[in-house]
Specification:
alpha/beta; binds SN-glycerol-3-phosphate; 34% helix; TIM Barrel; binds calcium ion; 3-stranded mixed beta sheet; 308 residues
C-alpha cells in the first residue's frame, strides 16, 4: 500500500515540471498550437489586403488571416492598413482633385470616398503589373473567402478617427461578425475570431458596450518600462493577450513568461525577409521567437513559418 502511494506521489511530482515546461514553451488560449498569422495576407508575394493575398495565405497554410479595417464615407468596413488610399492604390491618378492637404502633402482619406468609388481603384498594380485590376475588398468579401478555411484576426485601425466622423468601428465590426455567425467564441470551429487593436479604449468599448466575448489582444510597439506583472494584471481586465512588436520580445523575452503567468497569450509582429535583423532568414527569426515561447506570429511570408 505504502509502495503504491509512494509510486503515485512520485508520478504526480514528476508531472509538475512537465506541466510547467508545457506552459513555458507551449501555447496559451485562444491559440491551440503555435500559430501562423498571415500579415495583411501573404503580403510579401501579393498586394497587401487584397483577395489574392488572402487566397495565397490560405494556400500557404495560414492559421489566421489578418484584415486591417478602415471605413468608407458611406459606412462600409474595408480591408486596408492605411487611413489613406494613395500608398496602395492609383487614387491619385483616378481622383486627382479629391485630395486634402495634410502636413504639406496631398492625401486621399478612405473616409472621403464611397465604396463604389473605392471599388474603381486598382489595389494591385503598385505591387506588380500582374496584379493589375485587383480591388480593395470589403470585410464581408474577406470573410466570404476565408470563412471555413482559417481564423480571422481583424484589427480596428484608428477607431478614434472614425468616431469623430460618427462611426463606431467596434459596433460595425461586431455587426458584420454577427451577421456571419462569427461573433462568439466557438461559433465556427473552423473560423475562430480574435480582435486586435492598438487602442485599449476601443477594446474596452468592445467588451463593455458591445458585450464582445471574443478574445481581444492589445498591440503595442515599444517597451516603455510598464511591461511588468502589475501592468499585465491590470491589462488583463480588458485584453486576453498581448501583441508586442517583435523587437520588444527580442529585448525583453521575460515578457512571455510574465504574460503566460497571467494566462495571457503572446502574439508578435511582424516577421519578414526585409526586416530579419541579426537572423539569417525570416524562418530563423520565427524559429527563435517560437523557441522563446511566443504563441503566434504575424508574418508577410507564411510559407516560411517553421512547422514542427
Ligand atoms: O496587427 C499586427 C500588426 O499588423 C501591427 O502592425 O501596422 O502592420 O498593422 P501594422
Ligand atoms: Ca495590423
Amino acid at each position: 500500500m505504502l509502495v503504491r502511494l509512494s509510486f503515485c506521489l512520485a508520478c504526480v511530482v514528476s508531472m509538475i515540471p512537465l506541466a510547467r515546461a508545457g506552459e513555458k514553451s507551449g501555447v496559451m488560449a485562444p491559440y491551440t498550437k503555435r500559430t501562423l498569422i498571415a500579415h495583411r495576407g501573404a503580403s510579401a508575394y501579393a498586394p497587401e489586403h487584397t483577395l489574392p493575398a488572402y487566397r495565397l495565405a490560405l494556400e500557404q497554410g495560414a492559421d489566421f488571416v489578418e484584415p486591417d479595417l478602415q471605413i468608407t464615407q458611406d459606412g462600409v468596413l474595408v480591408c486596408l492598413h492605411d487611413s489613406r488610399l494613395e500608398r496602395t492604390t492609383d487614387v491619385a491618378s483616378r481622383f486627382p482633385d479629391r485630395f486634402r492637404m495634410e502636413g504639406g502633402k496631398k492625401v486621399w482619406p478612405v473616409v472621403d470616398f464611397k465604396l463604389a468609388e473605392i471599388k474603381t481603384l486598382d489595389a494591385g498594380i503598385r505591387k506588380d503589373k500582374k496584379f493589375a485590376g485587383t480591388r480593395v475588398p470589403t470585410l464581408q468579401e474577406m470573410i466570404d473567402l476565408v470563412k471555413g478555411k482559417a481564423g480571422i484576426i481583424p484589427e480596428t485601425k484608428g477607431p478614434e478617427l472614425y468616431a469623430a466622423r460618427g462611426f463606431d468601428m467596434g459596433k460595425m465590426l461586431m455587426d458584420v461578425l454577427r451577421s456571419n455567425g462569427l461573433d462568439r467564441p466557438g461559433a465556427d470551429a473552423r473560423t475562430p475570431v480574435i480582435i486586435q487593436s492598438f487602442s485599449l479604449e476601443s477594446l474596452k468599448k468592445l467588451r463593455q458596450e458591445q458585450g464582445c466575448k471574443l478574445p481581444l489582444v492589445y498591440l503595442f510597439g515599444t517597451a516603455n518600462g510598464l511591461e511588468t506583472a502589475e501592468w499585465l494584471k491590470k491589462l488583463k481586465e480588458t485584453a486576453d493577450g498581448i501583441a508586442p512588436r517583435k523587437t520588444v520580445i527580442h529585448d525583453h523575452p521575460e515578457l512571455i513568461r510574465l504574460a503566460h503567468e497571467q494566462g495571457m497569450s503572446v502574439t508578435v509582429w511582424t516577421c519578414n525577409e526585409q526586416q530579419k535583423g541579426r537572423f539569417a532568414s525570416v524562418q530563423a527569426e520565427m524559429q527563435h521567437l517560437l523557441d522563446l515561447g511566443v504563441d503566434a506570429i504575424f508574418t508577410d511570408n507564411p510559407d516560411q513559418f517553421p512547422r514542427k
